[in-house]
Amino acid sequence: MPDALTWYVMDATADDWESLEQILPHVNRFCDPADAGMIAKTVARLVSEGLMEEMQHSPVDIEAVLQDPIEYWFRMTKRGREIWEAERVKYPD
Questions:
Q1: What is the value of pTM for the model shown?
Q2: Contacts of 14 (CB under 8 A, 6+ apart)
Q3: Count of structural domains within the chain
Q4: How far apart are CA 16 and CA 35, in angstroms?
Q5: Where does residue 50 fall: left (phi above 0), alpha (psi -120 to 50 degrees), or beta otherwise?
Q6: Taking Cα atoms as reference points, which of 60, 68, 21, 64 lies closest to residue 44?
């Protein structure tokens, strides 16, 4: 079960590939403020858990993502979308 931060990170990628630069304002619009480092760590964890993927299938190095927040693009995997959908009723948009 994802917490609010995790769910809103996933939600940011619900309709398209998104970069850290695009995920950050989405999360902060709907969730408690989070910094880029927190979101990058959440994205990296979601990728390692198979719930999100990086467009180029590059390893997700948190520092590299933070250094170049528009270089890496992410979206939910099928499994991630199933979890996101199942938890959707808990989080208003």
A1: 0.92
A2: 76, 81, 84
A3: 1
A4: 22
A5: left
A6: 60
